[in-house]
Amino acid sequence: MTLDLTAYIKAMVRKWLQTTDLKSWVLMQSLTGVTGGDKCDSLAAKQYQELIGQLLWISNTARPDISFTVGTLARYMSSPMSNAWKAALHLVKYLNQTSEYKLLFRDEANKHSGQQIVTYTDANWALDPTNGRRSTSGGVTYMYGCPVSWRSHVQKCVALSAVEAEFVAASEATREAFFFSYLLRDLGVEAHPPTLQTDSQGCIQVSKDPAKHWKLKHIDTRYHFVRDHVQEGEVKIDFVGTTDNVTDILTKPLKGLATSRIARLMGLTMPSRGGVEDVSAS
User: Fold this and answer.
1) Average model confidence (pLDDT) for the chain?
2) How far is Cα 209 from Cα 230, in angstroms, rounded to an integer?
3) What is the per-residue pLDDT for 278?
4) Distance in angstroms (rounded) separating the CA atoms of residues 128 and 72
5) Within 13 Å and on the Cβ side, how many CA atoms surround 30?
6) Does residue 276 belong to any structural domain of this protein?
7) 57 lies in which domain range?
8) More confident residue, 56 or 171
9) Could you tell me if residue 274 is inside a domain?
10) DSSP, residue by residue, 128-184
11) Among 159, 171, 177, 267, which has the highest number of CB atoms less than 10 A from its own CB?
12) Would you say residue 8 lies in a domain?
């Protein structure tokens, strides 16, 4: 079974782009490239808000690969600038290139098909200078190998280290994993402890070893949620290499081959049409 928005995306491309020949494998050039430029007039501002609304719906429905980029662009909805408008149109070019992506739901969708709940988590630490250096959390939850939830958002607190940013992201991901675990129980299915996958060894150590707690004592108590449940055996936390962490695309800009590779790992599939070139955005 697959879920796709091909027809909707093609209609949107016809509305927003001058020609349907404009395509790109690149989601966005850079974070700083979205800022600045001239302030949009009232008509352009309304058009920007309309476009971002459409992109948010696409992202939340069947296209987790664009979540980070859309979230970044959504910050400028109240007062859009020309550079943000250009970046939004460039994202439409990416969707035009990948309009036939389908979100795949099947037993063999990925290596976690035999596990009930697996949640990937990641964070970029103070990567974005445009939001007060607050880190971005990313999370993707799989149920029996199928992607059922994804999220990319700016953390509410300023992390003082990469481990702290990853710890906050892991706590948020744990809550999401438990939601689906409780859902299974409500459906009469015996639920097993969910598994977290993170590429931060420091986060794993802090979650498992009470002796490491002093390093993060200043963090809001709600973010110690993951540590308590890991130590109680109610959730497992394992290491995954950065190249295999599907949430990498939810926390930072990726380009070309890296984007298409992570998209496939997430569960997106598209008919083969030749190689993907890691080229600069047009």
Assistant:
1) 87
2) 10
3) 40
4) 10
5) 8
6) no
7) 2-104
8) 56
9) no
10) -GGGTT--EEEEEEEETTEEEEEEEEE-SS--SSHHHHHHHHHHHHHHHHHHHHHHH
11) 177
12) yes
Same domain for 38 and 64: yes
Identify whether the C-beta of residue 8 lies closer than 8 Å to the C-beta of residue 55.
no
**pLDDT tens-digit map of 231-266:** 889 999 999 999 999 999 999 988 778 899 999 999
Helix (H) or strand (E) holding 104: strand 102-104
Quick check: is 231 in a domain? Answer: yes
> How do residues 103-123 score in pLDDT, each as one tens digit?
988 765 456 656 899 999 999
| pLDDT exceeds cutoff 70 at 277 | no
pLDDT per residue as tens digits for the range 8-17: 999 999 999 9
Query: Do 220 and 121 lie in a common domain?
Result: yes
**One domain, residues 60 and 38:** yes
Q: H or E segment at 197?
A: strand 195-198
Average of per-residue pLDDT across 128-137 = 81
What tokens appear for 131 in the block? 């939001």
Residues 100 and 133 in one domain: no
Number of domains in the chain: 2
Residues 123 and 37 in one domain: no
- Is the Cα dihedral 206, 209, 210, 211 positive or negative? negative
Same domain for 186 and 85:
no
For residue 195, how many C-alpha atoms fall within 13 Å in the half-sphere facing its CB?
A: 15
Mean pLDDT of 42-67: 96
